[in-house]
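The data are set out underneath:

___
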Amino acid sequence: MKRKNIYILSIAILALFSFLLSGNKALADLSPNGGPTGVSPEQQGPSDADKAQVEGQAKSEASARAQSEAAAARAQFESEFGAPPEAYQEHKPQKPQIEKPGKVPEEARKYLTDAEIVPIYCAMAKWKTGMFFSAMNSLKNNLAPKMEQAKSILGITTNIPSFDDIQAEGQRKIDDICNAKTVADAEKVTEEFSIWGEEIDSKYIGTFMSEFEKKMKEKGDELRKKIEDSIQPTIDEESKKMEPEIDAEARRIAGTFKFTKQPTDADIAAMRAQIEERLKPIIEAKKQEITQKVQAKIEEVKQGEAGKFIELGKLFEGIDGKIQADINAGLGAYDKYKEEAFNLRREMVMKVLDKNLEDGLKKLDASEKDIEAARKDDPTIKNVASIKAELNQDKKVLADRLDVALEAGDENAFQNAINEFKMKWETMRAEGEKAMQQSVSKVCTTALAKFQGARAQMQTNIKKVDDIQAKCAGSASDDCLKVNQFSGRFETLSSKMSELLAGMNMAENMCKDEEKADIQTLISLMRKIQSDGEDLKVFGEALEVEKSKAIADSAEAICGKVLPQLNAYETEVTKNDLSVLKNNLAKCVGNTSEDCDLINKTRTKYEALNREMSAFSTRAKDVSAFCSNPREEDFEKIGTSFNTLKEDGEKLKLMAKELQEEQATTISERAICKAVLPQTESAKADISVGIKKISDTQNACNGKNDEKCVAIQKLQTKFDEIKTKSENIINKFGNIKNTCDSAKSEKPSGAFLKAIETSGLKEEGEAIKKLVREMEELQTKASLFSPKGVKIEAEDEIAKSLLPKTADWHSREETNPSWRPPYYGSGVWYLSRGKESLSYRFELPISTHYYIWVRDYVDNFQAKGIRRATYYINGNKIVTAPEISLAELSASSRKIDPAKGIFGWHKIAGPIKISGGANTLKVEKEATTAGAAILDAFYITSGNEVPPER
């Protein structure tokens, strides 16, 4: 049965069942008083209750059947007469292909003029755009007529593209390419051609087809409604006509049932089934009548607009295949351009080849003596004559292969021949250069000339560093504190310069007797010298940025401070320390001697250090990637990330030195000193930084009697105690350095190891640094002396609640962050994520009303309020306050450009009643999308004073 008949039959069945089971009266009239004449009460039909049960069950089943049949009918109807646009084949005609000629090789630009290259580019463009022009011609012949037909029938307003005009415009662009004065101009027009060609499908064809699909959907909806409106009256009329006949037959059948007693449910069900079964022939006959009449109505509609609609739906069927076939047929017309392009490219390749060979052979001839000298040590090195002969043979083979590819029209073979020759030539050139470099005479002549100037400069620098270190090795004077801040970096530089000079001296000794010198050893030594020179530059750059006291006030500036120091850590740990550790372990593989047993025990620690350093390097690469294109809005994030990285880098450096120390106890005095001195000098630098800071504060109050300085001067005894302890440990560090200055390359004795013993010094150093931090806090509190209030350092929290750390810039206490603007105490708190909090304890002298001040950070990279936090006193919420605004900064603060970031005081709440005695302050970061609350200090006062800026 055809699909359209399914719909007709479904409608008929639905109408008949609705009529029979809910609309007729035959079953409803079966009652004790309405049965056939002559039937006794014992033989009467079902009771009213029985009749209602039969009728209810019949209606329920009829409703379910009606819904199912209606759904099937609707689906078939939409599929046949009013399908949505997506049911039609989607029109995707062949998209115009724009194949570019490709970039002109750099070596061709080097040896050929624009006037020589543009004709090649022109021929390539004509050949490569053949697909585009062939596609336009095919669309004109196959697609355009169909579009005209659709436009006429449906009233489409979008204009049909003129494929003749498109081809003419394309040809104008090809002419512009061929008439270009320079290769750059030709490439520019080609790019414009490509962009323009890609737009044709969406701009012209796509717009038209979108309107076509919209019109088809509208027409389908219209015809669906028209057919529904046409057939429904017929169904209603025919159903009404059938009512008397079906009613009479139903009565007749019902009258044939005789019961001698009240019928059971089973009797009623059997009766209902027999009635339905005996009505089926009548229903089928009536269904056929309705089918024929509804079909006639539908055919009327199909003879009109519906027929046209169905034909339109098939308008674009199979068009893609026709378009592609025409495109393929048209491509043959462009073969002449392909042949022209091949010939011109062949000429270009041979010209470039000749130029390359000319330059290369000149260099080869000039180095013939060096190559012959190298052949004495390595006979496998080819001589000049062999290299020339092989190159000439390869050139001939290339020319033949290009001719074969040209005749076959094989683009891949053409390109492969060029690539293979190029690879061979590169290999030959590299072998020649390697041979030239492998002459002892050549290596020595080149290297020794460079050594002279470098040696004098390094000897001068080593003397300067040694003099400074010797003067301040065991001193904690004010002048030496300035120097000792950088003692760790000085030691790295001095050690690397000494290594470099030692390498130079060894190379010079080898070059004095070239006949006995081993070329491979000499080359390895030269590479080591070159590597040490690069390392020295990295360490020098790191020292320069560490000496700079300027505040990094932009993303670019902070990158200038970040990268040299990160490079120094990677160079010192990965390139130097890990290499030494790995080499020592490699030497002891399978060796069970006492010395190697000690070294082999460090393997697990080495592997752990290697993993941590690898992770550090990955994070450092992320910073480097950011710094290649820094964004000002990320200034704060990168600064915080760097602060973490710098701390981690310092820890990794010390871990590497400690591990080297473990290994070096079995190697030599110099080796162990190379591991120990960086540790002691780094500790000296840390202590010196802290001592200098508290010393500057004390010295600034000499001879002054203001309230702040009087309070600071009371701390002098404690300061003197710390200064004495620092002088003692710095003196011990100096003794270790003096011992190491006379270290030998022999295995360390017990006396030597005792003289450089560092056990206990680490704990002593940490104790001094703790005293320095406590002193800083006391000085800060003294500088904020007020009888009316109390000052709290942000880093003095008694409790913190933080989310798990997942990135470098997540919440953390920043200790001595050198890149931050001036702050109080030993650092600040960087609170970055919502619901994270810090808690503090403070004591007030009396119960009264107080004002709450906060000293926090602001810049112009984040929106106002993005750093806001909520403040609680004794568990009670006081206020949710944004960070200080630029407008609130005091005049004195404006000496530093606030747009670059600054800390400042602002009042956030008050007056509020707070009890005297112990109290708690809690700060909770609000869940903003970006921007951390960066907190320096809090001030709670009953007075009207403004906390002083540093």
